[in-house]
Amino acid sequence: GAILKKIQQAGTSGTHLLAILIDPEKFENSAASDFLSQLPKETTHFFIGGSSCTAAETQRTVSAIKKKTTLPVVLFPGAHHQLSKEADAILFLSLVSGRNPVYLIDQHIKSVSALRTMNIEIISTGYLLIDGGHQSAIERVSETSSMAQSDVQLIVDTALAAQFQGKQLIYLEAGSGALKTVSEEIITAVKKEISIPLIVGGGVTSANQLAKLYHAGADMVVVGTAFETGNWNNTITEHASSKNKNYERI
Ligand code: 1GP
To answer: Domains along the chain?
Structure first.
């Protein structure tokens, strides 16, 4: 599919992708223009989904965004009914950090009768929930625990197992509104071993953090809450290395 191919190309050429996540439950169609106008020009994708939104909310949100952008609109569903035939693609997420069959295969089966009628690109994605410093909605809804950030080897092995199973993307998720993002150490360790693109999301609120996550090895970063609440910090402060130089001079 065209959308996966573009993400793969970005992965091999070192281009950085930025997906803005919109939760249909909180999205007002009438505010769409204002919302879109505050987004960075680096935005490359829209992700649409949430932990508890309805089918109708999903469809109206995809419709509203599609009317205003030429960027790919990708479903990021929290459940099998969060679909829209107007979307360009769907991340077919398997929650491989957890052991709940409902989010490993059952939701997927339930989505098939609708998906087979839709002409949207299906992208098989290994989804790993990593501890973001608070109990995330995903943990609550999926009834699974997140992986500890200190379990780096287990996270790497889980990502690689998902790749061996045929997943086309790996998504490291700290949870919406996470207090801490997935660490650079984890991102670098996973990126080093997998050969499929790496998506990172959860708790990213500034351009500084974005730069760090890309530098660590993320091909795509997903930001939701910071734009939803208008709390995005776009200032790039002096790089740590130049601070060190000042320090040496003193
Ligand atoms: C959550 O990774 C996304 O599924 C984005 O998280 O809302 O914290 O940006 P935030």
So the answer is: 2-249 (3.20.20.390)
